[in-house]
Write a structure and sequence with these properties.
two-stranded antiparallel sheet; 2 strands; mainly alpha; 14 helices; 71% helix
Length: 316
């Protein structure tokens, strides 16, 4: 039991911090521009593939630096010459634009790198066990992923709260007209924030790519969960996104490890449920089997009972 709790907690924290790397950029973009970017997970996928391609020539570490910069620049260009033009037609046009962009990126990735997973390997410098506990080893690269995610969170927090740039960004979140009246180039700030948000997603891709499977379906599998994080944490709330990311990461990780069903819980109480009972498959399903839908159940409950989210300050 102690082994299950310790390693599930580590894996849950790791998964949650990776979710935050993705959700933080999406939250900033939504806060400033009011755009729910359906293509955000596609930049995560691009980061993994660019990191893989760069690592083939100059190694993993240059890719860790260059891939987020390249993807961030691509995101800034898309905002400048795509979203900014579409913005005048309303939010529906923006949603359709990012929705189509996600499909375009996925098709381009398949045309360039193929439909099968690529061989994105863990760097040799981190290809060892960090520690052994209860005869179970924990990879050093996973510890690196966790530490990198925490470092990015701390850096982002310091940037937004301790620097002049962060002050301008936070002011532009709520009072863009006033920021513009003070002489700041608000469209440029929007473009840079969009690029940084895409770069953060790409960084998550470079970090997670070697440990997870780098394939064209990785964006589609992770994309929906980002909107769960944003809504549960609170629309436009960065601290809320952080708390929601850790909450969802821990809940889903522990749920996967629990092989218990409703029938198992009721059996000691003298209530026997079988597959022949009404809704038999429902009672026999284990927590691990329903783990993928638990975050979406949480999303529904939050929308019903607290539409603002955990730390949000607006309903729309």
């Amino acid at each position: 039991m102690a082994e299950l709790i310790i390693f599930s907690t580590l894996n849950g924290l790791l998964y949650g911090m990776l979710l935050f790397l993705l959700a933080s950029g999406l939250t900033l973009i939504f806060s400033m521009m009011g755009v729910l970017n359906f293509a955000h997970a596609s930049f995560y996928m691009l980061g993994a593939y660019f990191g893989y391609q760069i690592s083939r020539y100059v190694g993993y570490w240059p890719g860790l630096l260059l891939a987020p910069l390249i993807v961030g620049a691509i995101g800034a260009v898309i905002e400048r010459y795509g979203l900014r033009t579409v913005h005048k037609h309303g939010h529906v046009a923006e949603l359709l634009f990012t929705f189509g962009l996600a499909f375009i990126v996925e098709e381009l990735v398949q045309m360039i790198w193929g439909k099968v997973p690529v061989d994105y390997r863990v760097p040799e410098a981190l290809n060892f066990s960090a520690f052994t506990l209860f005869s179970t080893t924990y990879p050093a690269f996973r510890m690196f992923m966790l530490l990198m995610s925490v470092a990015v969170f701390v850096g982002l927090l310091l940037l937004l709260t301790r620097t002049r740039v962060g002050l301008i960004i936070r002011a532009a979140l709520t009072h863009p007209n006033m920021v513009g009246a003070l002489g700041h180039n608000v469209p440029l700030v929007f473009m840079l924030v969009f690029g940084v948000g895409c770069g953060l997603a790409a960084l998550a891709g470079v970090i997670a790519g070697p440990a997870l499977v780098t394939q064209p379906a990785m964006a589609a599998s992770l994309g929906p969960i980002l909107f769960v994080v944003v809504v549960v944490g609170g629309l436009g709330s960065l601290p809320g996104a952080f708390i929601a990311s850790l909450l969802i990461g821990l809940i889903q990780t522990f749920a996967v490890a629990l092989n218990v069903s409703v029938a198992d819980v009721l059996k000691p109480l003298g209530l026997t449920l079988t597959r022949d009972s009404f809704g038999g498959d429902l009672w026999m399903a284990t927590v691990a089997q329903v783990a993928p839908i638990i975050p979406y159940m949480l999303l529904v409950l939050v929308l019903i009972f607290r539409p603002k989210g955990l730390m949000g300050d607006r309903d729309t």
